[in-house]
Predict the 3D structure of the following.
Amino acid sequence: MLLYRLAVMAGEADTDALAKRITWAQLIEWEAYAQIEPFGAIRDNYHAGVVAKMIANVHKARSASGHEFTYEDFLLKFDTPESQAAPRKQTEEEKRMWLLIIAQAVAGMEKT
């Protein structure tokens, strides 16, 4: 799905053409970047959630419930199993794996 997100950001309708213009190493780098720094519609969703949380918490004193809202309460949820699951933190092993993948991609780019 990352390729589609990149295509939207680049204004490219043809994902096959985009896939031919970028290398596997570049795609892996973009995936790593997206994990660290979400962008596009996903990032917009987080921004909207933060604003909605602030507004809801300002007005919650007027309601009977003392529930403190979080931004997650306002994130858009789509009809996919992945979007319904609570986000989980990466394990140390997953972090090391991503660093290894990035290092290998960079080393591969230096050889070309």
The first helix runs from residue 2 to 10. The chain has six helices and no strands.
